[in-house]
């Protein structure tokens, strides 16, 4: 797990090495264990290393293969790198390290861009062909690892975070109105390739981009489950599906133990993270470190679920660590979490993840997390309603159920020059729902949530918050083979038992029933949800700052309405509208965007 950066020139000039160094230095939290730079001709690469696999200097990056005339930088982990290494050795390749990075280079040398189809893991990489000048960028199937791009005439820059690109300079930081529309409509989800800034884009997940020496490029999307029932699954009983899911999850958890350092678990006490602990115990994992976080109550809402995490920790004999965060520390930690955000994120648990990661990183370098199970196995409360909708009406039902507000409401909120003339977020959903495949409305909904919303909300959140402390988070529920299996699973089995039915059935085979049959919980941070005093003060400061007034995104009358009644204005989904507006402004100010 690392941070990568670089620059490619198409105008005959040499890369700006000082800019690449600034990007690399900004990525230091993602890779505190090593730093490297490489440059030849029109390409320069930078890297920050977090030592997880091959702890020696042989695994340092950027890494070059002088025989193949390749150089590359890599972020993530290819869990099956040992198997691929053996296969490549049998094909005549020779290795000087024990790293998965070298396997990626050798796999590209052997199979070209099709190498990504052989990788089980999370990754973003850039490979430069020294002889041709061609540069290849790739991202894993579920977009777990980020890759941001800034293209200007004659130049392409890339980095593992948006703030790193800002550190290089020369970025158009004006607001993208379409992305802003997505942010305000879709609970802060801004789908790839856009970001809220006009000058920054991100490589979509499951995509390989080949950039030619003249700057032209073509993209290839190499993976997308169909979300239809497969012939090979015909006749499977509910019990068969339960066993198949449990076996696939067991494999996913086992894969994510590959490391040359200890691997812990972020344990909320919910079904998903508890399943990971149970399966690791089944695998014979001893001295397993688990970590939980909770917050002080506010507004009559409890802020921790320690009862359940303690129960699981005791049952499986883990080395459990519990962090209780007082409300006043939430407000103090807010700015650090915002600084770690590559894009604005409004979910309350972003601060929780940041605070928890700070503590966990003192104990381990790698953790497994239960992120993604709700999207993959239909765990949210709105999915049953979607299942009753005809397939042809899926797009409208999705927008009505999930969007924070309709397009018409934005005219009251936004200044005219950042307000798109039509419902661009609705257009995006309609286009996605119209793609062939996805038999039912629920299938189409899960496809959208898993391959768009999840990637640019919860998955990005976990990556940004953990990596800001040099902590690698692995997400077994996003193992691509498990996702393929879940996509083919009959919707009624996923919806059973109040949601995630097939996963709950699997849980009952390995977990205490009290954990499986508990009410669904979330990651509560009451101090933010209910605008506790210090949080509200920070919000007022940001929205009253000269930068906010000069920026002119939100109508001043609307901001004043929100500030006059901080806890009264809610989106359709119940989120605090003031928090959504303020977080964007706090993010822009934190990253010195004018």
UniProtKB/TrEMBL annotation:
One of its GO terms (molecular function) is asparagine synthase (glutamine-hydrolyzing) activity. L-glutamine binds at residue 100. The keyword Disulfide bond does not apply. ATP binds at residues 266, 293, 369-370. Its EC number is 6.3.5.4. It holds the Pfam family Asn_synthase. InterPro entries: Asn_synth_AEB (IPR006426), Asn_synthase (IPR001962), ASN_synthetase/amidase (IPR051786), AsnB_N (IPR033738), Asparagine_synth (IPR017535), GATase_2_dom (IPR017932), Ntn_hydrolases_N (IPR029055), Rossmann-like_a/b/a_fold (IPR014729). GO terms for biological process: asparagine biosynthetic process. It is an enzyme of class 6 (ligase). It catalyses: L-aspartate + L-glutamine + ATP + H2O = L-asparagine + L-glutamate + AMP + diphosphate + H(+). The keyword Amino-acid biosynthesis applies. Residues 2-214 form the Glutamine amidotransferase type-2 domain. The active site is at 2 (for gatase activity). GO terms for cellular component: cytosol. Pathway: Amino-acid biosynthesis; L-asparagine biosynthesis; L-asparagine from L-aspartate (L-Gln route): step 1/1. It comes from the Bacteria. Keywords: Amino-acid biosynthesis, Asparagine biosynthesis, ATP-binding, Glutamine amidotransferase, Nucleotide-binding. Belongs to the asparagine synthetase family. PANTHER family: ASPARAGINE SYNTHETASE, ASPARAGINE SYNTHETASE (GLUTAMINE-HYDROLYZING). This is asparagine synthase (glutamine-hydrolyzing).
């Amino acid at each position: 797990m690392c941070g990568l950066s670089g620059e490619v020139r198409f105008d005959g000039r040499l890369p700006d090495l000082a800019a690449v160094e600034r990007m690399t230095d900004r990525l230091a939290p993602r890779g505190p264990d090593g730093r490297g730079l490489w440059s030849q001709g029109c390409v320069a690469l930078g890297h920050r290393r977090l030592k997880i696999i091959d702890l020696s200097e042989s695994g340092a990056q950027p890494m070059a293969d002088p025989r193949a005339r390749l150089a590359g930088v890599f972020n993530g982990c290819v869990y099956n790198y040992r198997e691929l290494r053996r296969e490549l050795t049998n094909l005549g390749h020779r290795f000087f390290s024990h790293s998965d990075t070298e396997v990626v280079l050798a796999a590209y040398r052997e199979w070209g861009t099709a190498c990504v189809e052989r990788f089980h893991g999370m990754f973003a990489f850039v490979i430069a062909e020294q002889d041709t000048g061609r540069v290849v960028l790739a991202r894993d199937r579920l977009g777990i690892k980020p890759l941001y791009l800034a293209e200007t005439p004659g130049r392409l820059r890339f980095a593992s975070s948006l703030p790193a690109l800002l550190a290089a300079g020369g970025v158009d930081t004006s607001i993208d109105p379409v992305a802003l529309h997505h942010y305000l409509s879709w609970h802060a989800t801004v789908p790839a390739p856009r970001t809220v800034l006009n000058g920054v884009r991100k490589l979509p997940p499951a995509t390989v981009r080949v950039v030619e020496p003249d700057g032209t490029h073509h993209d290839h999307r190499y993976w997308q489950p169909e979300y239809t029932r497969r012939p090979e699954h015909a006749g499977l009983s509910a019990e068969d599906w339960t066993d198949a899911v449990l076996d696939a999850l067991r494999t996913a958890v086992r894969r994510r133990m590959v490391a040359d350092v200890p691997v812990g678990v972020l344990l909320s006490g919910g079904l998903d993270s508890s399943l990971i602990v149970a399966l690791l115990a089944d695998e014979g994992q001893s001295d397993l470190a688990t970590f939980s976080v909770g917050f002080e109550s506010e507004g009559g809402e409890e802020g921790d679920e320690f009862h359940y995490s303690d129960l699981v920790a005791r049952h499986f004999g883990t080395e459990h660590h519990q962090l209780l965060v007082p409300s006043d520390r939430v407000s103090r930690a807010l700015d650090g979490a915002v600084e770690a955000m590559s894009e604005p994120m409004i979910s309350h648990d972003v601060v929780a993840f940041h605070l928890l990661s700070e503590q966990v990183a003192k104990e381990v370098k790698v953790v497994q997390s239960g992120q993604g199970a709700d999207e993959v196995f239909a765990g949210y409360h709105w999915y049953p309603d979607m299942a009753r909708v005809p397939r042809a009406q899926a797009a409208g039902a999705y927008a009505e159920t999930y969007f924070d507000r309709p397009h018409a409401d934005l005219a009251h909120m936004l200044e005219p020059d950042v307000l798109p003339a039509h419902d661009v977020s609705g257009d995006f959903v309609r286009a996605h729902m119209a793609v062939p495949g996805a038999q039912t409305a629920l299938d189409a909904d899960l496809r959208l949530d898993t391959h768009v919303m999840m990637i640019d909300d919860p998955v990005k959140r976990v990556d940004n918050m953990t990596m800001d402390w040099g902590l690698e988070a692995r997400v077994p529920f996003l193992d691509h083979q498990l996702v393929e299996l879940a996509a083919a699973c009959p919707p009624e089995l996923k919806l059973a038992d109040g949601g995630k039915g097939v996963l709950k059935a699997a849980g009952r085979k390995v977990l205490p029933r009290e954990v499986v049959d508990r009410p669904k919980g979330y990651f509560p941070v009451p101090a933010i949800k209910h605008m506790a005093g210090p949080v509200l003060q920070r919000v007022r400061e940001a929205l009253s700052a000269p930068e906010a007034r000069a920026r002119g995104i939100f109508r001043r009358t609307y901001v004043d309405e929100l500030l006059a009644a901080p806890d009264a204005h809610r989106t359709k989904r119940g989120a605090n509208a003031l928090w959504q507006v303020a977080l964007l402004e706090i993010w822009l100010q934190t990253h010195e965007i004018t």
